[in-house]
Amino acid sequence: MPSATQPLLIVGDRFAGFTVQDTVQTVTQLIDDLHQGVYSQGAEGVYSRSSEPIRIRAGQGVTLEDYEAIWDEFVLRGLAGRLDFPYAEPALAARGEAHKHCETNTLIANLRRDDDTTFAADLRLHNDNEILLDHQTGEHVQGMVAIEAARQMFLAVSERFFASHHPQRRYYYVIESMHTDFENFLFPLDATIEYRITRADTADPTRLAFTADVSILQAGRRSSLTAVAFTAFEAHVLQAKEHRRAEKAVAHQSREAVTAAATPVPAPAAAPQPVLAAA
Question: Which SS3 state, helix, strand or coil, does residue 13 take?
């Protein structure tokens, strides 16, 4: 339990491994404590004193619904006057910017431009994000989150600040290279994504080419650095090329299947007869 001056950090249930830290709980753990009267007057602990504020801060995985549920529990127990729990719903990148249909999978929030070549956003990791559904161990967030955040960041910056200059055009993005260095663990707490353009070729509106560095920063340190090179082509041009190559891939697969069907399959070897041995 944290001290009266140290806030309790709340994370989504997916990050239960992080709660080995003394000042961290999941949403469910906090609500369970409320049900057990941990914060009620007369219970043991610093928060039982009626004059002490109960300071809570949200980490990753805490949704608006979680925030409202926690407030409801405090109100129900007459503790709302002591609760210090600010929460701001993140302004997510739009579906067409992050290229994600489901908001739970969008990692980019509060996207902003710092100068001509530098952009920033807050990392927003929903408790039910697709990357977390089948792999979450230990205290840190897995590396695929950093890679996907870098991918969504270059898409969102390109869509909002460059492709938007040509509203009559629709772009198809092709990654030419993407390399990530992992420098520090990333934990389910506040983090900033910084996007810095190192080269931009935007003279031809049918083809926008960029190289950029994408950093994820947390607690005064860089967790990862992704160097990416990509090009945004007019969709109809690239889709035609993609379709031709898909046809060739299908034709190749079909030829392989025909060849395999024409090749005699050797008969299975006879099963060995059991050997009887005296007891």
Answer: helix
Among 209, 199, 201, residue whose Cα is nearest residue 232: 209
| DSSP reduced 3-state for 149 | helix
pLDDT in tens, 52-76: 899 999 999 999 999 999 999 999 9
Rg of the chain over Cα atoms, rounded to whole angstroms, equals 27
- The burial class, CB within 10 Å (0-12 / 13-18 / 19+), for 4 is middle
pTM: 0.86
| Phi and psi, residue 11, nearest 5° | -125, 165
How many alpha carbons fall within 13 Å on the CB side of residue 115? 4
* Digit-coded pLDDT (tens) for 166-186: 999 999 999 999 999 999 999
Which has more pLDDT, 167 or 134? Answer: 167
Q: How crowded is residue 87: how many other Cβ atoms within 10 Å of its Cβ?
A: 17
Residue 203: closest CA among 255, 162, 245: 162
3-state helix, strand, coil in the chain (%, to 5): 35, 25, 40
Q: Tokens standing for 170?
A: 């629709």
